[in-house]
Design a protein that fits this description.
globular; alpha+beta; Deoxyribonuclease I, Chain A; 9 helices
Length: about 300
C-alpha cells in the first residue's frame, strides 16, 4: 500500500516537472521567419502615384501571395498607404524623412516579436533617404535589420574618389550620374559603420532593401574595396557577408530588369540560419508594359526564409 502511494506521488511530481519544462522547451523550438523586401514605386500622395482602386486590390493580392513575416518597404509614404496593401496584420515602422519615398518595415503581429525601431539618419548624406534600424526579440531570439533605399543612378560605376572626381560633367545626364555617384559613395561610410557595430555585437544581422547597385556588376568588373559597393561592405570574419542575388539574374517583368538592385544581405550568423534554396522572387503574372509597371511596381518583391 505504501509503495503504491509512493509511486503515485512520484508520478505526480514528474508530471509537475514536465509541465513546468514544457513552456521552456516550446520557447526554444525553432521557427521559420520569412523576410522580404519590396519597393512599391511611388506608393503615396505624390502625383506620380496614378493608381486606382483595382490597382490597390492587385497589389494586395500579391502581398497576400508574398505572405512574409517581415517586409522592408521602399517608396511607401507611411503606414496608412502600407496598410492599404498589407492590411491590419502588421505593425508598421516608418522613417520621418520629409519625402514621400520613405523606408519602412512591416512586422507581422502574430509572430509575437518585441520590436525596437529607430531611424538611421546617417545615410542621409544630402537629400537622400533615411534607413530604418529594427531589432526583433522574442525570448532568447534576437535579430537586427537595417532597411535601406540608397541613392539611385550610380548602378555600377566606380565609387572611389579619384574615379568619381574624373567623371564627365558636361551634359545634364552626366551631371545627374556624377551627383548620384558622389552621394552613393558618401553612403558607404555609414553603411560600413552600421555593419561594423553589428559584427562586434555578435548577433545575427541583415541589411536589406533597394541598394540601387548591381552587385553582380561590382564583382564582374572586379572593383576594388574602394570602388565597389559590394566590395566595400563585404569583409572577413563577422563582416563576411552573403546575399543570394549575387550570381543570378532577375526575372522581374520577364527579365526586363535583368540585374538585381534589391538585395537581402546576411551577416555570417544570419547566413547560418538561412534555409537553403528559400530565396524567391515573386514575379508578376502580367507581361511588362510601362503602365503596368506604374500601377504595380517596377520592382518585384524578393524574400528568404530563416530558421530561428
Amino acid at each position: 500500500m505504501l509503495h503504491s502511494i509512493y509511486q503515485s506521488q512520484l508520478s505526480v511530481k514528474k508530471a509537475i516537472i514536465l509541465s513546468a519544462l514544457l513552456p521552456l522547451s516550446f520557447s526554444m523550438q525553432a521557427e521559420t521567419l520569412k523576410v522580404a523586401s519590396w519597393n512599391i514605386a511611388w506608393l503615396g500622395s505624390h502625383q506620380y502615384n496614378i493608381r486606382v482602386e483595382s490597382d490597390y486590390r492587385e497589389l494586395a493580392r500579391y502581398a497576400k501571395k508574398l505572405n512574409a513575416d517581415i517586409i522592408a518597404l521602399q517608396e511607401v509614404e507611411n503606414a496608412e498607404y502600407a496598410r492599404i496593401v498589407f492590411g491590419d496584420d502588421y505593425d508598421y515602422y516608418f522613417s520621418t524623412k520629409d519625402w514621400v519615398q520613405r523606408v519602412g518595415v512591416a512586422v507581422r503581429k502574430s509572430k509575437g516579436y518585441s520590436v525596437q525601431a529607430s531611424e538611421y539618419k546617417a545615410l542621409d548624406v544630402g537629400r537622400v533617404r533615411y534607413g530604418m534600424d529594427v531589432t526583433l526579440t522574442k525570448g532568447s531570439k534576437e535579430i537586427r535589420l537595417l532597411a535601406v533605399h540608397l541613392k539611385s543612378g550610380c548602378f555600377e560605376k566606380k565609387l572611389d574618389s579619384v574615379s568619381v572626381d574624373s567623371m564627365k560633367n558636361a551634359s545634364k545626364r552626366e551631371k545627374q550620374i556624377k551627383t548620384a555617384c558622389i552621394k552613393l559613395s558618401k553612403q558607404l561610410k555609414p553603411l560600413e559603420k552600421w555593419i561594423d557595430q553589428r559584427a562586434s555585437q555578435g548577433i545575427p544581422y541583415i541589411i536589406l532593401g533597394d541598394f540601387n547597385r548591381r552587385f553582380s556588376k561590382d564583382i564582374a568588373l572586379n572593383h576594388s574595396e574602394k570602388s565597389g559597393l559590394w566590395q566595400a561592405i563585404d569583409d572577413e570574419d563577422n563582416e563576411d557577408l552573403w546575399t543570394p542575388t549575387l550570381n543570378r539574374n532577375s526575372d522581374c517583368w520577364g527579365g526586363y530588369y535583368k540585374d538585381y538592385i534589391d538585395h537581402i544581405v546576411l551577416g555570417p550568423k544570419a547566413k547560418k540560419r538561412y534555409i537553403d534554396n528559400s530565396f524567391n522572387q515573386l514575379v508578376f503574372d502580367q507581361k511588362y508594359t510601362k503602365n503596368l509597371a506604374n500601377s504595380l511596381s517596377d520592382h518585384c518583391p524578393i524574400s528568404i526564409e530563416l530558421d530561428l
